[in-house]
Here is the input.
Amino acid sequence: MTDRFVAAIDQGTTSSRCIIFGQDGAVVSADQREHRQIFPKPGWVEHDATEIWSKVQAVVAGALAKAGLRAEELSALGITNQRETTVLWDRATGKPVHNAIVWQDTRTSALCARLGGADGQDRFRDTTGLPLASYFSGPKAAWLLDNVPGLRTRAERGEIAFGTIDSWLIWNLTGGTDGGVHVTDVTNASRTMLMDLRTLEWDRSILAAMNVPEVMLPAIRSSAEVYGTATGHLRGVPVASALGDQQAAVFGQACYDTGTAKNTYGTGSFLLLNTGERPVPSKNGLITTVGYKIGAQAPVYCLEGSIAITGALVQWFRDQLGIIRSAAEIETLAASVEDNGGAYIVPAFSGLFAPYWRSDARGVVTGLTRYVTKAHLARAVLEATSWQTREVVDAMYQDSGVRISSLKVDGGMTANGLLMQHQADVLGVPVIRPRVPETTCLGAAYAAGLATGVWSGLDELTSHWRRDTAWEPRMEAAVREREYGRWRRAVERSFGWEDD
Here is the structure.
């Protein structure tokens, strides 16, 4: 049988990547390029959507060249993307009307507070599964409409298109100004705060409350179907999946059964628990979200704990402080000491996400003494990821009653064995890394392949999953709880720094 190939674009917060997979789910080739991070004001984070599109085209060409493949040899193309990042563009020219506002951006905090009114963060939660927070796309779109001169009038005339990054890429891939398809999938739509979780349609009462014209919104489709065919260098290739990056990792990790969970460690970290075909409301600071929807099948929902800053803290340690020259150096430096020396770093650079949702929080370093060295701080940087994950796991148990027996992990930070061991220690359960750790791309490829007949179903995909490494907990329970208590006190110190 001739091997079939599926390409996946992973457009992330700091880079764009393309990976080509064979029919056995193994990586054939990959290419990756970083894009700029734009910080116009404290708490504001932007991307140049035109630069992103250029980088995406480059990495697709690079992956094909490395594999020695032509575009016509691809059976399908899937997309996974940084979620909530918001792009508005001119339908006639194809040009963005403003830099994309990134999911980490906090400029809509005051707007969200006004929208909440007497109901506060819970105003739209029953419908959308989301707290009113600057994280999500709908308020970002409303901010752009209010702050770019003349934009609202143009949007109401139908001249402007709104999208998360998946919509922007699909529109460009399928022709752009020459017939580009304007769609999003249910996972990305569920992160806008504009979609009803149960009907999977835009909610007109919320659109009215945020003053967002429905005419600018994309059509909502499933996560695995052929949206259109690519043009240009990829002419004729079916564009056949879209999944927000964390939902794509759920799919790539084969978390298809209710009660299975994964955590992805990237710029931020995102722990998702499959709750089956019913949305589970959260009372403990989590998000209820769509996990995936395959064609005409029923949607699968997840509880999610979203952590804003994990890998980005290592970047800060490297780039802003200059203590290390490469991200990989932090493990060696941290391993040169036995513990954190009493220091804790709470990376609330853009407020805190789950389970607190505190936009007034800002980063703090606590427990400093003359004893603390850069090595202790390096260890505190890594441990911040583990402790934030522990908080999310505790909230997940309180909401669902499901106590995880292990945690599947993926993403770039899983290469750090010291971090993974500490993660197992603070959770008290095994942490398991798969053979293909970059499962966001794999999930997008799997969904595209299902839509085009490359793979037969979920059972075949499950058979591809293989364990690479597992870390067993070694920390004594008393030590774990003592250190956790200190972490929680450090988190409290981060509250109340920003007036808005």
